[in-house]
Write a structure and sequence with these properties.
This protein has helices at about 40-45, 90-95, 120-125, 140, 145-155, 170-185, 195-205, 220-225, 240-250, 275-280, 290-300, 320-330, and strands at about 1-5, 10-15, 25-35, 60-65, 80, 115-120, 130, 165-170, 190, 210, 230-235, 250-260, 280-285, 310-315, 335-340. By secondary structure, it is an alpha/beta fold. It folds into 2 domains: about 1-145 and about 290-340, Quinone Oxidoreductase, Chain A, domain 1 (Alpha-Beta Complex); about 160-285, 3-Layer(aba) Sandwich (Rossmann fold). Strand 11 (about 230-235), helix 9 and strand 12 form a beta-alpha-beta unit. The protein binds zinc ion (ZN) (2 copies).
């Protein structure tokens, strides 16, 4: 079978590999769709450090084989398997940081989601990491369960009431967050985005204003739009380092900046730390998602509360994976979906 694998330095290649087999407690899933994520691009570039590098984690498909002892899953079922699952019992999980659980990154899809089929480890199956897709959720929509879950978790870490908000970066994560902010009642939701295609999507999805940070002064524009006060919440959905300080500067006193995008390693924050105290602004990071959020994401997609289909701009068969990576690096792409 074919699989797209990381090949150093700074590349990926589609190779012929032996198909995986389901050992005890495991399942093998035939991939039907897998979203190409910004973190995959970073892993391919060699700049991602948060987990051992395996590419393809926004995968859905059909159960192809079931190992001994697996309950509740059968061959032919349409599923979303979560690539990382927390234990739910250790001090870190119980302390409220399940995505920091030492087990969380201990397992992954094998050889990864960009493969004709992949093995889901026993740990993930046993810890309720596999969700069944209802008939109303096609594979392409199902591929958004994982990224939407990450955005849900991030907003779950924000204060309960959000009036005005600014989203920095209207890639897939920014556009999912924009819709979640509307569902939470935020108004207005402002957006800062460089790419014309992404800015257009943000407008279609109801952004009150969309600014280009290369030509507009986003901090001044945000203040103007909020009558000088600043926004309650600024959500950084880009890995562009300077966006973090910019987000903090757009906040009203007491506001919160959520950090969802992974900044490049080794950067420095250009922000006067006295402002954290004198203006009581917060910087709250969010990393990945748990089974509570993947279930919530599936529910929102199934009920069409979040329009994920509109984010798909490109589709590539697995054999053209390398080309997909090239295209996804360009700004005219929002979400690229890989199919078998
Ligand atoms: Zn992702
Ligand atoms: Zn744990």
């Amino acid at each position: 079978m074919k699989a797209a694998l990381l090949r150093t330095p700074g590349g990926a290649a589609v190779e012929e590999v032996p198909p995986p087999e389901a050992g005890p407690g495991e399942i093998v899933v035939a991939m039907r769709a897998c979203g190409l994520c910004g973190s995959d691009l970073e892993k391919i570039r060699g700049t991602y450090t948060a987990a051992p590098p395996v590419i393809g984690h926004e995968a859905v498909g059909v159960v192809k084989s079931v190992g001994e002892g697996v309950e509740g899953l059968r061959r032919g079922m349409r599923v979303f398997p979560h690539h990382h699952v927390a234990c739910g019992r250790c001090p870190i999980c119980r302390g409220g940081s399940p995505t920091m659980c030492p087990h969380y990154r201990g397992t992954n899809l094998e050889p990864g989601g960009f493969a004709d089929s992949f093995r889901v480890p026993r740990w993930n199956v046993a810890h309720r990491g596999v969700l069944r897709l209802p008939p109303s959720v096609d594979f392409e929509r199902g591929a958004f369960i994982e990224p939407l879950a990450c955005a849900i978790r991030a907003l779950g870490r924000a204060p309960a009431t959000i009036g005005s908000a600014l989203v920095l970066g209207a890639g897939p994560m920014g556009l999912l967050s924009l819709q979640l902010l509307h569902l939470r009642g935020a108004d207005p939701v402002l957006v800062s985005e460089v790419s014309a295609v992404r800015a257009e999507r943000a407008r279609e999805l109801g952004a009150a204003m969309v600014w280009d940070p290369t030509t507009d002064d986003v901090v001044a524009a945000t203040r103007r739009e909020t009558k000088g006060g600043g926004v309650d919440l600024a959500l950084v959905a880009t890995g562009h380092g300077p966006a973090i300080a910019q987000a903090l500067r757009t906040l009203r006193p007491g506001g919160t900046a959520l950090l969802l995008g992974v900044p490049e390693k080794g950067g420095r924050l250009d922000f006067d730390p006295t402002e954290f105290v004198t203006r009581e602004v917060s910087l709250v990071p969010s990393n990945a998602a748990t089974e509570a959020e993947t279930r919530r994401a599936l529910d929102l997609i199934a009920r069409r509360k979040v329009d994920v289909a509109r984010l798909v701009t490109h589709r590539f068969p697995l054999e053209r994976f390398v080309e997909a990576v090239e295209v996804a690096r360009r700004a005219e792409c929002v979400k690229a979906i890989i199919t078998p």
